[in-house]
Amino acid sequence: MRAIQVTRLDGPDGVAVVDVPEPTPRESDVVVDVKAVGVSFPDLLLSRGEYQLRPDVPFTLGVDFAGVVRSAPDGSGYAAGDRVACVLPYGGGAEVVALPADSVFPLPDAVSFEAGAALPMNYLTAQFALATRAGLRAGETVLVHGAAGGVGTATLQVAKGYGARTIAVVSTDAKAEVARAAGADDVVLVDGFLAATKELTDGDGVDVVLDVVGGDLMTDSLRSLAPGGRLLVVGFTGGAIPEVKVNRLLLNNIDVRGVGWGAYAMARPGFMRSQWDELLPMLERGVVAPPIGHTYAFDEMGSALADLADRRTVGKSVVRL
Which domains does the chain carry? Predict the structure, then answer.
């Protein structure tokens, strides 16, 4: 079978489609014929050897993917022919994947495989950030940095699903349109976002900030919080890891909270499925509908990662088998 592998740790240039043996499943594994693979920031970091997980080269990329069950053990809740979405730390970018049932989720018939491959990591991260880490309540206001990207658009939609107001922060007018299409209530440009946010909230500030960008946004993000507000640190796509002057937290009774979804969720059996069950009603209502930015051929994963590295992507990019 074919698999998208990192053959050397040179970033996108070290990614190639290679022939590998089909997996030998364990008795407890679900075997999936893969139809689409999501393109994620962890894939890019893995290709550079910069992720917290550093598998030996060569290894197969692919954090989230969707397909059809080929076989499943009794008691797993799945059967041959079921449509599913799946998530792994890596290894989903192959024509056939064997994985634990805990990492497999039922995909409604109305949801395409491409959309299914755009769902798991981004939307489970967003749900974990908002529900578990922020304790989001209906009626609160959520400001989302990097709002036209995969995690950003997911957060806009999940926040709406929980009854929150959303403010999207983007870098260009084109990305503003993506955020609006994803359901943002208000959209502001990153230059001057603090003043714009204060104006939109009548000077009160927001209850939650979700930041996937990092860099020099941190200070103004803290200033944008209302008393009792929570800033969620999800990633550093901007490159630099910011520092926090903790006196700012004391003065306004605000929090900075880390969001490490993968290490938390994958170590707790059944947790990801409970998250998925929270999202299913939002999918059925159409509140959650992942925007697919660009679809690539199976042998174009390197190009997809290069576009991601150069911040040319909007929404979620997907590789189609």
Answer: 2-119+290-320 (3.90.180.10), 122-262 (3.40.50.720)
